[in-house]
Structure formats: structure tokens, C-alpha cells
């Protein structure tokens, strides 16, 4: 894996030989671990040039617009697989046989309920609390309820925690929504599939159980698949960093949820709709595009651009197609916000500023439109991202704990005062 070497020339010091690591695909990586022996280290805020770990789960080629989970292209998974099968793949490395899949689905279904006492936890929150604030709290609180799976050194415990998290996230997400609505929380129904069950818990009430539209359930399932993992992004890196200290899995996922919340990351799907509201009308688009281009204005077009993709986000392509299917199923043809979104996309894709910087619409641009059409309130958008991403987070956490790892501890370039004396 490390046949080639790089040489680092430091003025006034002996050259340092650094091994070059080669992955199965993707660019070579210079291994700088031995640099610390020279009393120096590297400076890379934002991790623009730094691989924080080795992983076998997900591969992204941002220039080509490729996203692979365990080698399988996201488009194929979205078309031919389903969310729970994708979860199995991410967690275990291979697609399941029919028998393995049936066992996995049955195990997930056996864990969909949450401890009854957890319900009381919700009462501590204001009804108008942001659902992500509640999710950070209740997911972290799982560690107070499931003590029997907290030994992170025990592979069986890790497995049980992973199952619990994947199974309980839709229940917790729907409970959060019901709490904000003042409606009774719905128990999960194990005769439904993962996406149907989520929609059931979100939109049904004890007095009215409506059938779930197969088209909407399929779209929901695709949204889950498209958000399942995305290698070492901010939230996944947060989960790994928290996990590297030996924190329990529920605490680590709560940390991931907190990191996801920001508008530069998972919070962008909510921010897209807020931005469309703010733009209000097609006639205002030019002014907002000008704001987005203005260096002195912090405004950015939400749902555009990506740290890694400098080509189309492959998830956005599938999402756009799903968006069309959902709008057709719901008979939505003249939604003004949708018209606005499409016009914005058109302008941004032809504007030199966006072309030169490779700022394409990302996954969040279209997911917000679909979720809104399904009837999910904007404040729940990032919760849905968190629900779907939980399997990615926990797969990375498991991968890290299954091989030797060190506590994550970045260094810094200190530019504060040197030592000085306190003279009173
Ligand atoms: N609107 C206007 N200009 C932009 C945008 C945007 N959405 N995104 C980047 N730019 C400009 C930026 O100002 C910079 O210009 P210049 O080179 O003249 O200084 C250039 O493009 C490069 O951008 P950057 O901020 O250095 O890129 P980054 O990799 O640090 O940031 C990003 C990536 C996703 C945080 C950023 O594109 C952004 O804030 N986008 C809007 C928020 C968003 O949609 N986030 C969701 C990402 S996808 C879901 C997920 O995986 O989390």
C-alpha cells in the first residue's frame, strides 16, 4: 500500500521521507504521521488537504460526480435497492442474501418502539422548540435508557446499538413532529415497511388511519437512500471524533445531529425553502443572484455548491427525478415556489459566476421541494436528513472501533501571546 515516497524539504533541516499511500481508487495520500518526530506538524484548517482516516464504506469522486457505497453507484442503489438493504450494505460491507435481508428487516422492526418513559422527556421542551433541538436531546438520552448495549468494546453491543439507532430514529423523528403539533404520538406499525411506517407515524392519528401512498413511500425511501452516507463530512467526522474518546454510540450520534444542523451542512434543505420564501417572486431572482455574487455580502444561494462535488451532485440528479414523480403523483403543476426554484436553477446553471466556481444544485436543493410537497414542514427537513444519515454515522463509528484507532486530537498554529507575567 505504500511503495512510493514523497520527500519534504525543510529549510535548515534534513529532508523528511514520507510514505505515499494508495487507495483502491482515488488520489494518492501522503502519510505525514512521522512528521511529528521532527517537531513539526501540518496546517490544514477545514481539512481541505487532509484525510482523517482510512475507510472502506463510501467513495466520492467530486470531479466526476461519482458516489459509491461499498463500490455500488448511488444511482443504482436508488433505483434497484431499498433503504434497509442499503443500510445492511453500509453496515456490513456486502448486499444481504434474501435470508440475511429478512433477518435484518425483522431485527429492525423489533426495535422500532422507544422506551415508554422516553415520551416524558419530550414534555421538557417547549412546543415551538426546533425539532433538531429536540432530536439532539432525545437521541443523546437514549444512552440513559439502553444501558445493556453501551460497552463499546463488545462487538455485539455495538451491533445492538446500531440496530436500535436505525430502528428508533423514524419513531423519534415522528414523535418530535407530533409533539410540535400537539397530537398524540403514534406507535410504529411493523406490518409497514420503513418509509411507510415513518409516514404513518408522521401523518396518521389515532382517530384516522389513512393508507400510505406507495409513490410517496417510495420517494421517501429514495430520500433516505440518497442521504444514507457521504464519507467524511462534518457530521460524520464529528461522530468519529466523539467516538474516538470512547463516548457511547447514542452520545456520538447526538453529536453528529448537532453538527448536521448547520446551514452549510444538513440545515441547507431547510434554508433552501426559507430562501425561496425570502425571494418570494421570480422578479426578485436577479437581485438575490447579485447578492450571492457580492463578496461583501455573506448571503449564499442555499442548495448550491459542495465542498467535494465540483461537478453535478449525483444525488441531486436522482432527487430531481424523484421530485418530478412526487409532484406528478400529487398533481402539483403550478406551485409558485417550485416555479421559482426551477427558474433559480436555470439562471444559476448559466451564470458565469456559478459555472466558473462549479456551483451546481446539490442534494438539498431538490429534497426540500419534495419534502414540502409530501407535507413535511420545513423545520423537519434536517431531522429527516439526520434520520437517514444515522446509518452512515453508525457504520463509520463501527468501522473505527473495529480496527486500531487513536483519540482524534488535532494540533493548532498558535498565534496568541507568548508567555507573559501577571503583574498586579
Ligand atoms: N452561493 C454563492 N457563492 C458560493 C456558494 C453559494 N451557494 N457556494 C460557494 N460559493 C462561492 C464562494 O463564495 C467562493 O467564491 P470565491 O472563490 O470567489 O471566494 C467559491 O464559491 C468557493 O466556495 P467555498 O465557500 O470556498 O467552498 P466550500 O467548499 O468551503 O463550501 C459549501 C462548500 C457547501 C459550504 C458552500 O458551497 C455553501 O455554503 N453552499 C450553500 C449551503 C449548502 O447548500 N450546503 C449543503 C451542502 S450539500 C449537503 C451536505 O452534504 O451537507
Automatic annotation (TrEMBL):
Protein's GO biological process: tricarboxylic acid cycle
CC per GO annotation: cytoplasm
MF term (GO), any: citrate synthase activity
Pathway of action: Carbohydrate metabolism; tricarboxylic acid cycle; isocitrate from oxaloacetate: step 1/2
Keyword NAD on entry: no
Active-site feature positions: 306, 364
Coiled coil: none
Keyword Transferase: yes
Catalytic activity: oxaloacetate + acetyl-CoA + H2O = citrate + CoA + H(+)
Keywords carried by this UniProt record: Transferase, Tricarboxylic acid cycle
Database matches in NCBIfam families: cit_synth_I, PRK05614.1
Family, similarity comment: Belongs to the citrate synthase family.
PANTHER family per record: CITRATE SYNTHASE
The protein's name in its UniProt record: Citrate synthase
